[in-house]
Structure formats: C-alpha cells, structure tokens
Write a structure and sequence with these properties.
Layout (H helix, E strand, L loop, with lengths): L8 E5 L3 H14 L11 E5 L6 H6 L6 H14 L3 E3 L5 H8 L7 E2 L1 H12 L4 E4 L2 H6 L1 H9 L3 E2 L3 H15 L3 H18 L4 E3 L4 H8 L6 E3 H15 L6 E2 L5
Parallel strand pairs: 1-2, 1-3, 5-6, 5-7, 7-8
Antiparallel strand pairs: 4-9
Helix pairs in contact: 1-11, 5-11, 8-9, 9-10
C-alpha cells in the first residue's frame, strides 16, 4: 500500500527553467502513487532571475548567494519540510549558508554520487559546468565519499559547457549532437558512466540516443532521493542538516 507523503517538498528552481520542469516531471513519473492524492505536495519557486552561477564563479557576474538564500527561506516560510534545488552549480553557493537553514536540504551532489556508486563502484566521468568543475564541488564530496571522479580535460570541458548553454537557449538537438561527440571520445578513452552533474545535461543526454545505462543523471538522482524521504518519512544521508558532510 502506498503511504501518503507527510512531508512537503520545497523546490527552488528556474536554474534553468527546462531543467526544473523536467525535475517536476520526474517527481510525478517516479512517485509510487496511483492517484492524485498519493503524490507529494510540492511548493515550486521557479526563480529564473537568480544571477548566473557560472558567471559568478568566473568573476564576470553578480553573486547569487543572497537570492538563493532568500528563495530557500521563502519556501521554508511557505511550509516546506524539506528543500531541494535542481541546479548543481547553485550548490557551490548554497553550501556557504547551508548551516543557517532551519529546514533540511536534499543535497544534489550527495544524491548524485550515491547513485553513481550504485551504477559503478569504479568511478565515473564528471560532466558539469566549468564553474562546478573549477570549484571542486564534486571533487570534494567525492573525495570524502571515497569515490573516483574523472575530469574530461580542458577542450572537452569547453564542449560540455557549450552543451549546457545550448539547452538553456532551447537548442536541445544541437546539445544532443555535441554531447554524443563528447561521450564517444570519453568512452573510447575509458569505459565509465557519464555523470551528468549539470541539470541541463540530462535533457541533452535523453535527446542524444545514447544508452541510458551509461549515464547517471543528477536530476533523476535528486528526484529519487526526495521521493525516498517523502514516502519513507525518515532521514537520509542526502539530507544536508546544519553542515556539509
């Protein structure tokens, strides 16, 4: 029997809008629900005006930290019991104030690394924004978790970043073609799962025709982690309470 979720999920989205829409679709598609009333209550704040996270990390744009914090606090004030943000790069900034949040956060990096370990204990390729790659966000969490992540190199990193930009611009077909090329190059070098650690990249991957068994989607990982908590009504290792793990 399906248990009614007793917690309310607050989602800070809009980074970007297509990725947030896909996250909401995944929550509905993967929930163990048979009718409307068995789905979780979700409060979505889609704030597409959060300053560009990658630009901020590159020093070419304003800092989004204050707006991200306000968004999280707004969702908590609305009555959310747990929080999630389907944007990997945003977590570079979220980690700076996570210990001040009164509402626990389902952390996308921890959720994605847990999914990657289930897929392959031997490691994965890291496909992320240039900001995430240079910040060491995933590298730091992976090191603490004892999991091997492989970076793609400077030239391929530029192509991955361009994939993200194409999806944000609405050109998923172009992003898919570019991602197929990058994936082929990586898999010829080392056969490891592709960890799509930017929430635009799963959209490009899904459109690419590449085998799903070769990918670890940060969007799917976050959705599954949220649903696990919502339906099992218990704490999880991906709940980001007070301080980063």
């Amino acid at each position: 029997m399906v248990a009614y979720p007793r917690k309310v999920l607050g989602v800070l989205g809009g980074m970007g809008p297509a990725a947030s829409a896909e996250f909401m679709r995944l929550l509905a598609a993967r929930a163990p629900a048979r009718r409307d009333q068995e789905h979780p209550v979700v409060y979505l704040l889609s704030d597409a005006r959060v300053p560009d996270r990658s630009a901020a990390l590159a020093g070419t744009g304003p800092d989004p930290e204050a707006r991200l914090k306000t968004g999280m606090q707004t969702l908590a004030a609305w009555g959310a019991d747990i929080l999630a943000c389907p944007c990997n790069t945003a977590h570079v900034f979220i980690d700076r104030f996570a210990d001040t949040l009164c509402t626990p956060l389902v952390h996308i990096v921890q959720a994605t690394l847990a999914a990657a370990r289930e897929k392959n204990h031997g490691g994965a390729w890291l496909l992320a924004t240039t900001g995430v790659e240079s910040s060491g966000l995933y590298a730091d969490y992976a090191r603490r978790a004892g999991y091997a992540l492989h970076t793609v190199g400077e030239e391929r990193q530029k192509q991955v970043q361009h994939c993200v930009e194409l999806v944000k611009a609405g050109d998923t077909t172009g992003a898919a073609a570019l991602l197929r090329s990058v994936a082929g190059s990586l898999l010829r070098e080392k056969e490891l799962p592709l960890l799509t650690a930017c929430t635009e990249l799963p959209l490009a991957y899904d459109a690419s025709g590449l085998p799903q068994e070769n990918a670890v989607s940060s969007l799917t990982a976050l959705a599954d982690a949220c649903l696990k908590i919502l339906y099992e009504d218990r704490d999880s290792s991906v709940l980001h309470r007070l301080k980063p793990l």
